[in-house]
Design goal:
This protein has about 400 residues and is an all-beta fold. It contains two helices and 25 strands. The longest helix has 4 residues, at about 25-30.
Length: about 400
Amino acid sequence: MTVISWMGALLSGCGSLGLEPTHHLSDSEVGPVTIDSVQPSFGPVEGGNAVTLTGTGLEGTITVAFGSATVSASKLSETSIAVTAPDAGVEATVDLTVTTDLGSVTLPGAYRFGDEPPDSGHDSPSETGGETGDSGGSESGVAGLVEFSLLQIACPDCFGLTSDLEVTADAAFHRPVAGSWVSWIPAAGSCASSATATPPTSTFLDAGGYVHLQSGSHSIGLVKTSGDSGPSYVASGLANDDYARTAFYGLDIDGGAGLSAEILDDAMLTPQGFSSITPAETLYTDSRSAFAAQVSRSGQEFTWAPFGGTGTFLILIDAYDGVTGNPLGEGLCAGSDNGSMTVPSSVLGAWPRGSLLAIYFLRYQIEHPQFASGATLESVARVGVLGTGVIR
């Protein structure tokens, strides 16, 4: 079997696994759903407080997602709804996504689990539902991505790898554009048989020789690397100790010809790790006993611990022919970090019994810190485990 590429490569993402593009609706396509205010815009980490949202297009069944944790909404009037904030487990600033029968809208960084409001200017979102408030600058849109990733590999020999751990950090900066680096992620509670991580632009800016991720004594230097799209930033030789779990990282940009020097505090929050995953056989480390986890074509429940983070939880499955090792396809499911997810038969039933599976369990924490200009940086912190299984 050929080496299975880690899905977090900066410029290829899921494309490195051969996934095909999927279409995501833009705000203009989904209908007249807007949110004008979120009150309050912050609350206790353990949740339980009432939050009122006002806007338009609040019709039919309405849900509100705090990051990836989705809760039902109660309609108060034609222009307002009420929800109870979920338990986040840690302090974090999260997106709010409101979904109705007319469509959905996402407010980046609109709610904070903590003692203070989010500092992204979203206490009073504009009528578009997607614009940020006045942050002292005049620009809007996404202006870059920084990723920090840790992947534990249960059976390196199974995939032709030499290490059971991969830690990477990458970044790229560009002029503010509409779009997102993470639009390939399915909606919470749904699956896709194909997805592609496509950059929202193909022209990157020079931000100096280095950018740094910093958290306490942890300092990760990302070095400028030239490419066809312009300079990107990559850290090499990272180890387990370089990745502090459940920690805030700031981003220090040295500044270059295309981007001024800037420090973004609390630009990223790293997720917690795993203490257990079931079926436990997915984590066998001996290649002679790998691919022992029995995964049902009619649907399979996976569980993990600990759980309760504010990020998105993904299960990505690559299937291979049990005899030839040829790729058969992929499936990607997204949900809340609630300790359990069922991958349905619509995904698993596409592959014959005996198919070998590479199974990724992935915690994604996505933040939206803002530059002084008002533009948004998307930051992605990721913890994952790669295990094995077989279709039965």
